[in-house]
Amino acid sequence: MTRKLLIDSDTASDDAVAILMAHRYPDIKVLAVTIVSGNLRVVDGSRNARYTIELCDAQTPVYSGCERPLLREPAHAYWYHGSDGMGGMNYPEPKLRQAQGHAIDALIENIRAHANDVMLVTLGPLTNVAAALLRAPEIASMVSRCVVMGGAANVVGNVTPAAEYNIWCDPEAARIVFRSGMNLEMVGWEVGRGAAALTETDIARVYALDTPYAQFAMDCNVHALELAKNWQGDPGMTLHDPTAMAIALDPTLSKRSGKYRVDVETRGELTRGMTVVDERRIVGTQKFFTDEWAVREPNVLTHHELDAAKWKALLHQCLRKS
Ligand code: BDR
Ligand code: CA
After folding, report:
1. Using one digit for the tens of pLDDT, what is the confidence trace for 206-256?
2. For 97, 102, 156, 190, which has the most beta carbons within 10 A of its beta carbon?
């Protein structure tokens, strides 16, 4: 049995590794990659996604999507991922052409065509997915799992103390998705930190696999590696999108998770884009909450930690020779 997958991405360096993993994983068929504005402009994300797909010898259609968040100004992060979003590697222009049509339509059509038999993994801001849900709300119940790389589950964020980039970038879109009724799983940025980061030894082991995939996966993340270490204080290369993809591909990698009410702060003065996770299940147990929070059920399977050894083994599996 092949599992069908849609990937929505603002394809920069770690997105590219996640896209590559999905294409190299045995029982996965990637139906489409849809590009959203986020860390990069859509034009750059599309080029990087097509280059990655070509490296995998695949022809997966890549659709361009929303060029900016629903209500906010775009906030790109070339400073983190490099001038091309790929660590300044300046890979050649891919031959694979962009697919005709808009990402929003591609999402709706693919989900309808494979209702209840398609998984969605999001690796960027949730603008495309929210726009698809606004146009066709019924697709929420047609996705078997929607694994979101985004958020910070009651921990410090990466772009503000309260928020992780993908959610912070378009909090209104994230709120629409989190309230949509989709079968959501959240893999916050903290999941890719600590023991999940690739140390120098881990990176050397990946290079030693000696395949174009391994070389590519490490090379394009060297710029991000420096910032992870020197700016974020991480012990090595943090691959946030790939860790989310790993949990999507193999849910047994998740070591600690719980289903909680999660919502997104859109108005906070200091907390824009905060993912508020009701980890103690406080909502509804007392009278202080009078708004709609109080009546809402747990909506997100929140992953807090993955098995670092299994994650690194899965990464190797995807990067070694077939
Ligand atoms: C997210 O932003 C980017 O750095 C990564 O691609 C990931 O999607 C982490 O906050
Ligand atoms: Ca991303």
Report:
1. 999 999 999 999 999 999 999 999 999 999 999 999 999 999 999 999 999
2. 190
Nearest to 214, CA basis, from 82, 322, 306, 77: 322
Cα dihedral value 278, 281, 284, 285, nearest 10: -140
**How many C-beta neighbours within 10 Å does residue 301 have?**
20
Side-chain-facing half-sphere of 318: CA atoms under 13 Å: 27
Pocket-testing residue among 10, 11, 14, 44, ligand 1, by greatest number of atoms within 8 A of Cβ: 14
Alpha-carbon span 46 to 91, nearest angstrom: 13
Closest CA to 38 of 132, 141, 129: 129
Q: Where are the domains of the chain?
A: 3-319
Q: Are strands 3-9 and 118-122 parallel, antiparallel or unpaired?
A: parallel
Residues touching ligand 1 (Cβ under 6 Å) are: 12, 14-15, 39, 80, 123-124, 149, 158, 164-166, 189, 240-241
Superfamily of domain 3-319: Ribonucleoside hydrolase-like (3.90.245.10)
Distance 93 CA to ligand 1 centre (A): 23
Counting from 1 in the atom list of ligand 1, the atom nearest the Cα of 80 is 4
Rounded to the nearest angstrom, the gap between the alpha carbon of residue 79 and the centroid of all alpha carbons in its chain is 19
Q: pLDDT tens for residues 161-184? A: 999 999 999 999 999 999 999 999
For this structure, is 316 an active site residue? no
Exactly one of 240, 303, 304, 316 is catalytic; which is it?
240
Q: Structure pTM?
A: 0.97
